[in-house]
């Protein structure tokens, strides 16, 4: 097996895309400086989710661009060449997607230049868009991730007369169980990363986090459009706007493709294509993780089935776990958040054991409450939210004597300094239309 040398490539080409029999393929090539090109194909099998309709070519083109960072990062060359005609705003979209969506990848691999490739390609003719005939009043499409956030969106919409169709990418048991509990119809799409990329990673290609939510969002837009549905309603919260570290003057955010920055970028891109931007928004954007937890505690029917841990969602099915791992940042954050809201007996039943009783979790809890190194590179909320919850646990007699609870009791003053929402009262940006905002029952 020959080594993969990322420095031997001069550019990545976004070659072409096509769709046939409900299967979308996007083709990419890493161009060697002298020879030795390496090609990849991303496959998205829409199956029955498209019906008999061919997707709008603008959205297919957008999907080809949105999937490209997965292959670009293997070598992170200085140039991205789009082989088919695009307009300035599409090239701008890809530039911003790389700069924001690969921030963590670049930081972890010490590749600052990976965030600023030159994006080139032939210009498409400017065409005046036709009015968007989309029906904003049609029922929404709601992506389901298997965690508490999408459950809160689902139940809020159901409680206010909406009948959403649920949507998922690939088959995962926690997602399927949440969909079943909801009682709603659903559509599933299968996405396959080229195995050649996984082989390249094993031979020395760069690897790291990519903006998966961006990819799933565009897939969702295609599915909603093909089925005559209303908006794609995400469940991304206010807390996802907060980054992990500042690096070389950049805010590096693991959740960038869940943030208001990406939501704005995608909506602006849809507008420039001629689509109504309200085809895409996040219902939970006005809420913090704490506020979402306050709502989720009322959905007990999901308590034994929702999972926010990454282990059950591993790409390699052989590495998937059946339940919470009990050690990763997502497990620790959700445990801390739900502990004062559900009580000790309930959270232990959900997770299988007491995470505060495991001293190996000390560094992880320190990180999520702002007393460690930095906010973990995971989908977790803000420091103040975890610290605030932990302070509440300290006041609960049921937790007295638990090892980590007692350790943090001695650091209560530190926790209370962190447990302050500095943005309290600040109204952030959101794009939730009025009829959907009513489903949140905000004061």
Automatic annotation (TrEMBL):
EC number, as in UniProt: 5.1.1.23
Keywords: Cell cycle, Cell division, Cell shape, Cell wall biogenesis/degradation, Isomerase, Peptidoglycan synthesis
Protein's UniProt keywords contain Cell cycle: yes
Claim: DNA-binding is one of the keywords in the record: no
One Pfam family, short name: MurL_epimerase_C
GO BP annotation list: cell division; cell wall organization; peptidoglycan biosynthetic process; regulation of cell shape
Domain MurL C-terminal: 306-419
GO cellular component terms, semicolon-separated: cytoplasm
Top-tier EC class: isomerase
Reactions listed under catalytic activity: UDP-N-acetyl-alpha-D-muramoyl-L-alanyl-L-glutamate + ATP + H2O = UDP-N-acetyl-alpha-D-muramoyl-L-alanyl-D-glutamate + AMP + diphosphate + H(+)
Positions of the MurL N-terminal domain: 10-283
Molecular function via GO: racemase and epimerase activity, acting on amino acids and derivatives
The protein's annotated pathway: Cell wall biogenesis; peptidoglycan biosynthesis
InterPro entries assigned to the protein according to its UniProt record, in alphabetical order: MurL, MurL_C, MurL_N
HAMAP family, A to Z: MurL (MF_02209)
Its job: Cell wall formation. Catalyzes epimerization of the terminal L-glutamate in UDP-N-acetyl-alpha-D-muramoyl-L-alanyl-L-glutamate.
Similarity section: Belongs to the MurL family.
Protein name: UDP-N-acetyl-alpha-D-muramoyl-L-alanyl-L-glutamate epimerase
Organism from which the protein derives: Mycolicibacterium hodleri
């Amino acid at each position: 097996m020959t080594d993969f040398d990322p420095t031997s490539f001069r550019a990545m080409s976004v070659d072409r895309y096509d769709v046939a029999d409900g299967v979308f393929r996007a083709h990419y090539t890493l161009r060697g400086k002298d020879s030795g090109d390496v090609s990849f194909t991303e496959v998205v099998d829409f199956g029955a989710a498209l019906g008999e309709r061919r997707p709008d070519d603008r959205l297919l083109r957008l999907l080809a661009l949105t999937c490209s960072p997965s292959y670009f990062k293997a070598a992170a060359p200085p140039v991205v060449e789009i082989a088919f005609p695009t307009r300035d705003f599409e090239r701008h979209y890809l530039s911003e997607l790389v700069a924001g969506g690969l921030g963590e990848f670049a930081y972890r691999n010490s590749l600052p230049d990976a965030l600023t490739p030159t994006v080139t390609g032939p210009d498409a003719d400017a065409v005046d868009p036709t009015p968007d005939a989309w029906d904003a009043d049609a029922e929404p499409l709601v992506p389901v991730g298997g965690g508490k956030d999408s459950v809160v969106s689902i139940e809020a919409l159901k409680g206010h007369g909406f009948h959403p169709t649920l949507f998922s990418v690939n088959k995962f048991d926690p997602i399927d169980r949440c969909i079943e509990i909801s009682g709603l119809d659903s559509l599933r799409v299968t996405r396959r990363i080229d195995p050649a990329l996984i082989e390249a990673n094993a031979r020395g290609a760069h690897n790291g986090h990519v903006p998966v939510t961006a990819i799933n969002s565009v897939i969702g837009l295609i599915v909603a459009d093909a089925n005559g549905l209303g908006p794609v309603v995400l469940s991304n919260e206010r807390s996802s706007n907060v980054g992990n570290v500042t690096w070389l003057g950049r805010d590096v955010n693991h959740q960038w493709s869940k943030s208001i920055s990406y939501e704005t970028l995608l909506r602006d891109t849809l507008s420039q294509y001629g689509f109504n931007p309200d085809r895409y928004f996040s219902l939970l954007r006005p809420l913090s993780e704490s506020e979402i937890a306050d709502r989720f505690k009322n959905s007990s029917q999901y308590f034994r089935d929702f999972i926010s841990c990454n282990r059950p969602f591993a790409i390699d099915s052989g590495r998937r776990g059946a339940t919470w791992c009990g050690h990763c940042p997502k497990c620790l954050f959700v445990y801390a958040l739900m502990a004062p809201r559900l009580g000790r007996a309930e959270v232990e039943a959900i997770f299988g054991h007491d995470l505060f009783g495991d001293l190996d979790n000390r560094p992880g809890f320190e990180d999520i409450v702002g007393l460690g190194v930095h906010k973990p590179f995971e989908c977790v909320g803000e420091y103040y939210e975890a610290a605030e919850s932990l302070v509440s646990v300290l006041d609960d007699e049921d937790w007295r004597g638990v090892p980590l609870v007692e350790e943090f009791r001695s650091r209560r003053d530190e926790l209370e300094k962190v447990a302050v929402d500095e943005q309290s009262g600040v109204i952030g940006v959101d794009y939730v239309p009025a009829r959907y905002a009513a489903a949140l029952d905000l004061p």
